[in-house]
Amino acid sequence: MNLTKRQFTQALAASLLPLGQARAQAFPNHPLQLVIPFPPGGATDVAGRLIGKKLGERLGQAVVIDNRAGAGTVVGATVVANAPADGYTLLLSSGSTFTLNPALNPRLPYDPVKSFEPIGMAARVPMAVLVNKQVPIDTLKQLVSAVKQAPDRYAYASFGSGTSSHFAGELVWNALGIKLLHVPYKGSAPAMTDLIGGQVPISIDTVAAALPHVRSGKIKVIALTGPQRSPLLPEVPTVAESTGTDFAFDAWLALMAPRGLPADARQRLQVALAETMSDNDLRDKLLAAGMQKDWASAQAVSKLIDAELPRMRAIALRAGIQAE
């Protein structure tokens, strides 16, 4: 009788072992790496740190931020594209990675679709048409009139050739039927410095970068490029409102993983991101940093990339945009 009990106990323990092992190995069972393909301190880095902290709380594991800046997000994106598809290496990046760079360079070391698996949309970064405070232009209508009267007088700054601000500018001018000379800078900060100083009369930049200078009266914002007004600048109209069109373009941030995730890891990450983006505290912190929470499903991100990529290629061809 005692032997039978021992045999039964051993058999029961053996039958429970795989279940215990499965539980021990359930995703995630160690910290995750979130690659930010921009330097520390920028809008994407700020968003990544806020989102990463909340995401880690829901996953029960730390999310470690890894800034891998370089080549207009290509460096960081390539790191993630080549990482194991196990869910432990993630990328938070913008349309620069998935639609702008591919529109300019067909020989990237990653494929914008085949190399990545969307987890979901995280946020949008509205962009704005900015004007030096001494320039007598307060609306897009006045801008059109001024440029048509003196077509060689007006130039605009972007934070780099082939960046989202460059594409946004060319889209706005095309919608308005005008042409401005493009002056590319190596980043938002030097472009903003020259706009404030009057070395360039107009620029396209993010609301996040512009907001402190707008509030201090150093620059003016005359239009937003997104589909709707910003809660941070509710009095500023959109380009769509000013032109009576469906114009919409802004920078967006999506969470991605290497293509080929296990089904359990994919589902866990997608659910955790959806829960993270429903957090009101996170919403308020993103908004204070000039960004808007804008969760969308993995399928929605895929559709956005499929629709935006050919559009960006057409814009680059028409405007002669080239990567630096």
Task: Describe the 3D structure.
The protein has 324 residues and is an alpha/beta fold. It folds into two domains: 31-125 and 250-319, Bordetella uptake gene, domain 1 (D-Maltodextrin-Binding Protein, domain 2); 127-243, 3-Layer(aba) Sandwich (D-Maltodextrin-Binding Protein, domain 2). It is built from twelve helices and eleven strands. α2 (43-59) links the parallel β1 and β2. α2 crosses α10 and α4 packs parallel to α12. The radius of gyration is 24 Å and the shape is globular. Mean pLDDT is 90; it is low at 19-24.
Compact overview of the structure:
This protein is α/β, with parallel strands linked by helices.
Gap from first CA to last CA: 81 Å
CATH topology annotation of the largest domain: D-Maltodextrin-Binding Protein, domain 2
Helicity, in percent? 40-55%
Major β-sheet profile: 6 strands, mixed
- What is the number of independent domains? 2
Structural class: alpha/beta
> How would you state the average pLDDT, rounded?
90
List the helices and strands in order.
HEHEHEHEEHEHEHEHEHEHHEH
CATH architecture annotation of the largest domain: 3-Layer(aba) Sandwich
Q: Class of the largest domain in CATH?
A: Alpha Beta
CATH fourth-tier homologous superfamily of the largest domain: Bordetella uptake gene, domain 1
Strand % is 15-25%
Helix tally equals 12
Number-wise, the strands total 11
Provide the gyration radius in Å.
24 Å
| Biggest sheet, spatial arrangement of strands | 2-1-3-10-4-11
The low-pLDDT segments are: 19-24
- What characteristic shape results from the CA principal axes? globular
